Amino acid sequence: MRLSRYFLPVLKETPAEAQIVSHRYMLRAGMIKQQAAGIYSWLPLGYKVLRRIEQIVHEEQARAGHIAMLMPTLQPADLWRESGRYDDYGEEMLRITDRHKRDMLYGPTNEEMITDIFRSNVGSYKDLPLTLYHIQWKFRDEIRPRFGVMRGREFLMKDGYNFDLTKDDALHAYNRHMVSYLRTYERMGLTAIPMRAASGPIGGDNTHEFLVLASTGESEVFYDSAVTGLKLGARKVDFDNHDEVAAVCKEFTSLYARTDETHDAALFEAIPAERRQVGRGIEVGQIFYFGTKYSEPMGATVVNDKGEKVPVHMGSHGIGVSRLLGAIIEASHDDKGIIWPEGVTPFHCGIVNLKQGDAEADAACESLYAAIGALGLEALYDDRDERAGGKFATMDLIGLPWRITVGPRGLKNGVVELTSRRTGESVELPPEQAIARIAGIYAGH
Ligand code: ATP
Ligand code: MG
After folding, report:
1. Residue owning the nearest CA to atom 26 of ligand 1
2. Eight-state DSSP code of residue 273
3. H or E stretch including 158?
4. Terminus of the chain with fewer CB atoms < 10 Å: N or C?
5. Residue 249 belongs to domain spanning
6. Is the pLDDT reported for residue 202 higher than 60?
7. Which of helix, strand or coil describes residue 231?
8. Mean of the per-residue pLDDT values for the chain?
9. Rounded to whole angstroms, what are the CA distances from 113 to 11, 201, 297, 438?
10. Are residues 37 and 119 in the same domain?
11. Residue 64: inside a domain
């Protein structure tokens, strides 16, 4: 993309309404525009990152064997009357009446609808296990929408639902989600720690939240610092192997890590003092096993191998797709702007032409731009006739992890400059070598 033809409405001033850094930078970098409290338009740069995050989520869901679909945002109230949640959900639910006076709602989540789809189409244990998911906009009429996309009213969520014959199978589905989420967040450059969450009226300890450590997080967290060093990395996991998947979950949940809701002071005190940490975290996902809570009242049953009709065991599993943009920025920025991890960056590299209009510089930039495109990567080429300082400030603000700077002086010596946004380090290289470096960096993403 050539910046002269792009739509990147960068703000010079820091918007007064933004209290936290991710919100400030998303507004300043022209990624989002607020349309009403907690409701945003996704401008091209923000939309690009949103799509990248979605793509990673889809890939990791596919790897775990989960099946993508799409349910509508508007739902009939009757489904929610069956589960009893139409009244229980309270004021967070946006209720709508259509022209025929039918009660509708903008879905805050989809347990009822997916259960309805299941009961209409599945009748035998032979069709299990089954996990369906979608990535769809949700609406929750939050009492205090704030922090930009972190706590919106309209927000994008990946929500998945497993259907299993037995509790054991459903717990395997739970574990499968935990492992696939770990990898999902790692690919986004995040350390998201699974923390035991409050189980509510259902009981048991079968719910975990995934928290990204950040001083601006809304949850207070207590953890053993060793937990932050755990990495899934590139290891291969057989998602059909119950024991193997359970072992990974055990590895990631054995060290103490809890939010204030489940904090146990005695257990916490047992951690060696130097590893005891109290901080704040952003919830970027949650997984839940809830058994037959919906399948029983809604009649989602299968016939088992003895010919008996039994309600299926279910769980639901959510990732805060749009919140993740904020979480990633909170975790990765400096005083100049955002620093995108390679896995989610809106453009793989920036090209800054120090002397637009100089025949040699223009030609070198054009050829770099084409070469990056030929790698299947995308460059943002700042081809505007602007001073270098302004171009650098824009690149730093929007946070592309790599920048190639091209100017007549370097070209005389046959080199361009490759700069890491994260470290600020620059190297001078012939253009072909700069391209080779970029190719190498993204080979693993
Ligand atoms: P919270 O405790 O932050 O209100 P929740 O526990 O009610 O969230 P879930 O139902 O677990 O939310 O939804 C799954 C994920 O969706 C959350 O982990 C979070 O990342 C995201 N999410 C929930 N509410 C919002 C919101 N208002 N704005 C943006 N993302 C949200
Ligand atoms: Mg939650």
Report:
1. 151
2. G
3. strand 154-164
4. C
5. 3-338
6. no
7. coil
8. 96
9. 42, 22, 13, 45
10. yes
11. yes
Instruction: Give a yes or no: residue 344 inside a domain.
Output: no
Please say if the pLDDT value at position 203 is more than 80.
Answer: no
Q: What is the mean pLDDT of residues 270-289?
A: 97
Distances (CA, A) of 300 to 20, 134, 314: 44, 20, 10
Of all protein residues, the one whose alpha carbon is nearest to atom 14 of ligand 1 is: 318
Report the percentage of the chain scoring pLDDT > 70: 98
Q: Binning pLDDT at 50, 70 and 90, where does residue 205 land?
A: low
Q: What is the pLDDT of residue 166?
A: 97
- Determine which helix (DSSP H) or strand (DSSP E) holds 60, and give its type and residue range: helix 44-63
Report the distance separating Cα 336 and Cα 121, nearest Å.
Answer: 53
Please state the rounded mean pLDDT for residues 113-142: 97
Instruction: Write down which residue in 338, 365, 394 finishes a domain.
Output: 338
**Who contacts 16 (Cβ-Cβ below 8 Å, separation ≥6)?**
none
Do residue 265 and residue 409 come from a single domain?
no
Q: How far is the CA of 299 from the centre of ligand 1 (A)?
A: 28
Whole-number Å distance between alpha carbons of 80 and 87: 8
User: Looking at residue 444, what is its pLDDT?
Assistant: 78
For position 200, what pLDDT does the model report?
59
Q: Cβ < 6 Å from ligand 1: which residues?
A: 109, 140, 142, 151-152, 155, 157, 283-286, 318, 320, 322-323
* Ligand 2 centroid to residue 105 C-alpha, Å: 20
**What pLDDT, in 10s, does the model give residues 372-431?**
999 999 999 999 999 999 999 999 999 999 999 999 999 999 999 999 999 999 999 999
**In this structure, are residues 400 and 394 in contact, taking their beta carbons and an 8 Å threshold?**
no
Whether the pLDDT of residue 67 is over 60: the answer is: yes
Tokens of 185: 């967040």
Ligand nearest to the CA of 318: 1
> Are residues 224 and 271 part of one domain?
yes
Angle of helix 44-63 versus helix 167-187 axis, rounded to 10: 140
- What gap in Å lies between CA 316 and CA 252, rounded to an integer? 20
